[in-house]
User: What shape does this take?
Amino acid sequence: MKTDELLLAELAKEASKIIKKLRRKEVNMLAPKNQQLIKFEGISLDYSRQLLEQKILISLTKLNQIKNFKKKIINLFLGKEMALHTVFRQGEVSFIDENAATWKQIAKQFLIVQELCEKLEKGEKTGWKNDRFKNVIFLGLGGSMIPQKFAHKALKDRYQTSRLKFGFFSNPDGLDLCEHLMSCNARTTFFVVQSKSLKTPELLFLFDYARKWLLDNGCDNKFVSSHFLVVTSNPKSAEAKGFISDHIFEIPEKLGGRFSIWSAMGFSLALMAGKENFDSFRIGAKNMDQHFYKATVLKNLPIIMALISIWNRTFLNFPTQLVVSYSSALDNLVPYLQQLEMESLGKSINKEGVKVSYPTSGIIWGGSGFDAQHAYFQLLHQGTDIVPTTFVEVRIDEPEATNQPFSLYVKENIRAQADALAMGSPLNGFDGNRPSSIISIDGISPYNLGTFMALMEHKVYVQSVFWNLNCFDQPGVELGKQLLLSKTSNVNEEI
Assistant: This one.
């Protein structure tokens, strides 16, 4: 049996061969071949246009970090890593029974969340003049906001059941929030403050602005707190800031912010889409967990996607990854993936505190596919750098005839772009051999969205294990906070 050292040496040799061929501009490395397709329920991955032969993929799976991965998955699901997100979506009947006690606490909180959602929707929860709330404004940054905005945007057009109007704000310059509040009535506006630490200066400025706005518009100081809810792992700080005790939703400290949408931090989704859709969202994630746990390595969607990224970044040394989506529902996909991957994996120090000697997270960028094609796809096809690309398509499953031509056009367009990147046109200076994958989603639904988000979380976790990184902390982000607070020591006193 080959050791990891031998396998890594062989993989490095194969990577070197590919790089040399690319430099010599040898064509047809990505010539049409049998489709490499892997699928789980409503999500499929076509990676036949990657610079990754099956023998290389098999060698990657034989490395100890991947070969012995099931134990890592079990530890993750037991909450033994610095994370609890999988526990929040396992449900009362879990394939890992050790989480039963934790789940009872989680289930109790979900009941409280649902009760508040129903009271806000029915007008039983009111402001200082007993008016029904009409606007709900979410204040937060980073993991306390980005996944929520992504999910909300993805589902609101087809799955919003709430009569309420929603707004999401992160920028402390005040202008965006100020303009939004000009169209709101203070008597009918409810604020949700989302912050794991409740110490982020930018968030505190937004909270302070909202509180002053209520006071300036006639709200008596003793009733201001009735217009606020906070989701945090720091309930003591919330109480000190005047939040009502039953308006404080506590999440565990071990639940990472960018993995927290499955908890009360997903309040925006539960309120907007209703209990049934929120439950479906979490069930989709749970079923992806099951797939991650049970599927063999070569049929395991998160593992294969992670190995493709590892191959492109660590072995072929491509520094960036482009993500383009062809659905307006996924307009916030790139910011979501940027935070999930780059904050989790953008590290040069491993778990033992030793500086790594290999590339880790690449730079993720991108946006809307059709806009991209008429902006930076020129660089993809003919530029001097190779940029691995992920195309994301949403298959329209509605029977209306008007949708069919558009759906077919999008499908064929994506594959034409992928084939052009792969095959090029040497006579016209297009080298080809530019790798890409196609992720297909069978319609945007709460279930499929939950499945997809859990897939991306697990992909990141696999990469972190391979690179021996802690994907659940963000010391660089915390350093910035510390430096800001050291320069503005009066922040907490003012807020």
